[in-house]
Amino acid sequence: MPVPAPRSAPALPLLLTISGLLGAALVLPAPLRALEQVELRLPFLETSFTVKLEELSNPARLISGTSDLAELDQASNGAVGRQLIALFNAPLPLQVPAVVNEAEGSPMLNQALLLISALGGIDGLPARFGSNDLSRVLDKAAARGPLTMLSVMQALPGNTASVDMGRALFAVQRLASQQRPADRLLAARTPASVSPALSQPGPLTVERKLITLPAPHRPKPLQVVQISPSQGANNRLVVISHGLWDAPESFEGWASHLASHGYTVLLPYHPGSDLGQQQAMLSGQVPPPGGEELRLRPLDVSSVIDGAAAALEGLSPRLNSDFVVVLGQSWGATTVLQLAGAKPSDVRLKERCDEVFNPERNLSWVLQCSFIGTANQAALADPRVKAGVAVSPPMSLLFDTEAAPTMNARVLLVSGSRDWVVPPDPEAIRPMQLAAGRGERGHRLVLAQGGDHFNLSSPLPQGGGALRGLLLAWTNGAFAAGAAVQPAAGAPDLLPANGWGDATIPLVEFSPAQLGTP
Known about the structure:
Radius of gyration: 24 Å
Largest sheet: 9 strands, mixed
Strand order of the largest sheet: 5-6-8-7-9-10-11-12-13
Strand content: 15-25%
């Protein structure tokens, strides 16, 4: 599965990639012989292709080989083989044995392996093949040089590794069906226009500094980036929560745009699931993030607000900590929803996490299903949070959709029409429809046409990216509404009728009532 190149790209796909390379050996079903070939099964065409592993070492071997895929490669003058060889011979970017040993049994890894095992298997793998066996395989592969998919497969026992291309096609078609509702909605409405008052930087000079704030729930103080006006601040506080294996740097463009218009923005590192934790995990020092991070992340944000309330050293003076807007992307957006009053529950997680072929299943379920056993302790609304923006939050299984309205904050939900990690339906459109059915008022959904899971955040050089006008408009509207910002009947609109759009990624707003029934 492709992983975007940026330094701190959200890494749900990365875990799946690692698991995909190695995971089948942990879960799939007996003499011990070296794996010799891969079979690509195409049941919808009632055919399959086989390729010998020895032919995948270089193009010359494949084009002169005798396997089915070699014949196809010969017919394409090597075009097919070059791509496969590049894939199978790419070095794995981690100390693989340490990661597998640390991750074994973790809910996130188990969910990834559940998905992968549904797509194929290894014929002839010993029935009792555990982590110790896998470690020996990896040691054998590492003795040949840098670990690659090919060297690992050559070290595995078994006869033939197979991939069911019919099931793979089902996964592709399922993703298309999850994106289609957003396309229909976007086709029926005109995108918001672009106003320089919202999209251009404000008049204030911005400064950045790194501070530390106490966090009683963590063993060490929190590292926090503060981006604020050097002069002329309005003393209004915004907090930004980053996603899984990400960092504040990915959102400093958002923060700088807001700060240039007067806001003070605090961006905490979430130490149990930030980029540093990812690097430690990939080097084998720590396991993947645990389910307890679902509870600890909102506590991080509340501790940041506590620091502002106490006017701790290093923070901008006279910040209003009683009225706070919180923004977040991916897991950070889930954190926003918790702070806004959404209640996590493991009821739907227990019902649906093992349903591999559920039509609503998507990559974000890997993260959500890791919260079984911790979700019920993670309702951590902060009444000081009055409004929030949740960009691409994993949410459809996690929150109690049957509960009575409990939100203390107005929420703007943003979803990219091409997000394949957290697809717009069921992760955004359906929850917003259900919120309307519960009687919650004032929330909004904005669909970003062509937006994906990686192009809606903004490092500093991007100046706020495609969402800069939208974030500023929603934040301005929240503070202008004051006490009327609460999600209740008659709540005023927080977005102006127009002007908060973007020229590169069209943005379209919907109220819950405009989405129809689920």
